[in-house]
Recover the amino acids of this structure.
């Protein structure tokens, strides 16, 4: 990648250089008797270069402003089309002086070529290095470190703090208690979930911690998932509240919430079919990568969040972001299932250790 | 967390505090144990977590933002900090949904007032104004993770902690075309053969010695209390939120705002007594914070704070 870029840069530089020298020669060189520049020619050249450089700089500024927009709203267009269509809108605000037009047109095309080369290799190059490592040094099938602490919230029946690398989630479980009459079910308990993120959790500051479309969607997903894990028939006419707060989000937020919630439910002593575990997986050029970070969660990369019970084949939640090719589906699902099993092992150890630590208090 | 206590328990509590003895053994002017940790979140420009008595737990995170404003529209310079307090549903199920919004907004507004003169109070805050029309906006966001009384007190300690942890990049301002300015991060040359973008950006820190804080002073029976527990909050007749700032010139404490929370009536003399108690407590708190900020160890990157 580096060498391609270098060659591109060199070629670009040479074009600018050659165009400049040819134009200067045609416009300013009048005296062919000496091998050095005369005084007049010298000043003429420096003026020309100044002019050229100013226009060039201005052009690059506008380009830098417009290029990211073109890259991110591709939709149906292929990368090259998107850039070409962007160029149509882009060339309007800048109207360079007539005399420098030709040089600039050439310059422009070269920049497009560089961008389109980068863009086609964009996914594979930036996410997995040529040596097979990801940006944070992990292998494609490696999960981040999981750290947990149970029972740190004294007001809640069960609580859990869980870290997946830099993703930090706090979960509290309240209940089962006699909840609101409007939510009451005669044959089983109602599960109420709330997913919220602190306003400083992401890269950009958010204005609202909850209530936006994304948070509501994740809340409903968690609700549905845990309705099929908790033995809801054991608590008719009651309610269990699950509150997840993402303190710091660095990718795989939903998976971290599922993991934190199942540990918090275990801490609360609520009967379940098993400990649920979840993982987010993506696919880069037919190679699955697991436990994505926020830098890997791009708009281009398809990603699947899968949750299973006890790492077995009982799926309780599947969520897909972006488009995934049908041929890749089985690969991603297999990788996700395997990762869920791995995560389950970690969670099971945590739950067992916590139970052992509680044994003296419980009197056994 | 809703606390229900009986009339007899209330009577016991009230007659206790009138003799300067509280249920947990403190006197009326005592705070619970304070735990203050800084630099807990790597994704923020400054962060702090404060625990009061191991039950009230507040997390503060600061995000900086380069803000452009219209200098003609502002008569006098606006202070660059904005506060937002959010009650996490984790703290109590009564805060689920919009449950905590009202109290959160009330506290945020009180902080906004308490800090309204902060350009005059904090010695180097005016450095956040970069050029005509550009300034650093300091977004201070607080999340209440556990709730057991005295949230404003915990919040103000967390704000001071986070502000002292905040690192603001140094910038170079150069005039540009059309009367605009270009703002570039300042990277001091160290002499090594690093590329320009690898040189770390120079940072500066705020001086928080005199940072305003918001204290709750509550009237229970005839006594004035600071840092109430949830049981004591059930017996409150009237509560004041008092903004106190250290005056660096004469080592005294200025009152920056007073706000009543909840109902109840107060006599003029009581208000006098309560503000006096607030500035007395503030003195102790400023000392304790200063000591803590000096002695606190720098955390390693990747430190996980709740474990």
């Amino acid at each position: 990648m580096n060498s391609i870029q270098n060659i591109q840069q060199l070629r670009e530089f040479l074009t600018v250089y050659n165009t400049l020298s040819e134009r200067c020669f045609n416009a300013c060189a009048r005296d062919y008797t000496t091998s050095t520049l005369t005084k007049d020619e010298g000043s003429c050249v420096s003026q020309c270069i100044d002019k050229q450089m100013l226009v060039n700089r201005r052009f690059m500024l506008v380009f830098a402003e417009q290029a990211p927009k073109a890259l991110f709203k591709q939709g149906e267009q292929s990368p090259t089309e998107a850039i070409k269509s962007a160029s149509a809108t882009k060339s309007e605000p800048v109207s360079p002086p007539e005399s420098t037009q030709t040089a600039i047109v050439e310059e422009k095309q070269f920049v497009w070529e560089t961008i389109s080369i980068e863009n086609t290799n964009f996914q594979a190059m930036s996410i997995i290095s040529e040596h097979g490592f990801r940006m944070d040094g992990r292998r494609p099938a490696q999960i981040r470190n999981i750290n947990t602490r149970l029972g740190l919230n004294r007001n809640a029946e069960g609580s859990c703090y869980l870290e997946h690398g830099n993703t930090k989630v706090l979960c509290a479980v309240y209940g089962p208690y006699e909840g609101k009459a409007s939510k009451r079910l005669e044959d089983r308990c109602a599960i109420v979930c709330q997913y919220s993120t602190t306003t400083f959790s992401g890269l950009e500051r958010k204005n609202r911690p909850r209530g936006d479309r994304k948070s509501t969607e994740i809340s409903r997903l968690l609700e549905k998932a845990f309705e099929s894990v908790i033995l809801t028939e054991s608590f008719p006419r009651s309610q269990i509240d699950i509150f997840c707060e993402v303190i710091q989000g660095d990718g795989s937020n939903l998976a971290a919430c599922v993991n934190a919630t199942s540990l918090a439910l275990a801490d609360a002593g609520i009967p379940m079919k098993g400990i649920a575990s979840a993982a987010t997986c993506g696919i880069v050029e037919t190679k699955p990568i697991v436990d994505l970070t926020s830098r890997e969660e791009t708009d281009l990369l398809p990603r699947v969040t899968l949750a299973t019970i006890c790492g077995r084949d009982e799926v309780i939640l599947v969520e897909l972001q972006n488009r995934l090719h049908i041929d890749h589906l089985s690969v991603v699902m297999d990788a996700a299932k395997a990762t869920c099993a791995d995560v389950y092992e970690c969670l099971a150890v945590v739950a067992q250790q916590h139970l052992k630590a509680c044994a003296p208090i419980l009197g056994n | 967390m809703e606390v229900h206590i009986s009339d007899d328990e209330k009577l016991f509590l009230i007659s206790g505090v009138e003799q300067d003895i509280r249920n947990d053994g403190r006197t009326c002017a005592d705070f619970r144990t304070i735990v203050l940790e800084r630099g807990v979140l790597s994704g923020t420009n400054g962060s702090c977590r404060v625990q009061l008595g191991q039950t009230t737990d507040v997390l503060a995170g600061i995000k900086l933002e380069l803000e452009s404003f219209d200098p003609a529209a502002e008569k006098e310079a606006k202070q660059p900090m904005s506060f937002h307090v959010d009650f996490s549903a984790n703290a109590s199920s009564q805060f689920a949904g919009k449950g905590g919004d009202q109290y959160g907004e009330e506290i945020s507004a009180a902080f906004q007032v308490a800090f309204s003169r902060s350009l005059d109070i904090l010695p180097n805050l005016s450095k956040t104004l970069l050029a005509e029309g550009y300034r650093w906006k300091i977004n201070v966001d607080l999340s209440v993770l556990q709730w057991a009384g005295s949230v404003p007190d915990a919040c103000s300690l967390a704000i001071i902690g986070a502000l002292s942890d905040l690192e603001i990049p140094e910038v170079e301002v150069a005039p540009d075309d059309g009367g605009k300015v270009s703002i570039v991060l300042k990277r001091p040359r160290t002499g090594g053969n690093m590329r320009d973008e690898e040189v770390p950006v120079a940072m500066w820190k705020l001086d928080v010695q005199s940072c305003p804080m918001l204290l709750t002073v509550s009237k229970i029976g005839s006594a004035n209390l600071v840092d109430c527990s949830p049981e004591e909050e059930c017996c409150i007749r009237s509560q004041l939120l008092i903004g106190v700032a250290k005056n660096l010139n004469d080592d005294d404490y200025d009152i920056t705002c007073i706000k009543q929370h909840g109902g109840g009536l107060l006599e003029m003399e009581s208000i006098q007594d309560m503000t006096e108690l607030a500035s007395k407590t503030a003195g102790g708190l400023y000392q304790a914070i200063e000591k803590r900020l000096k002695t606190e160890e720098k955390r390693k990157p990747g430190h996980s704070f709740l474990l």
Notes: Helices of chain A lie at 2-28, 39-72, 79-90, 101-120, 122-127, 213-227, 253-268, 326-362. The interface with chain B takes residues 147-149, 152-156, 159, 161, 163, 166, 168, 170-172, 174, 192, 194, 196, 198-203, 205, 209, 211, 241, 243, 245, 247-250 of chain A (CB under 8 Å). The first helix of chain A runs from residue 2 to 28.
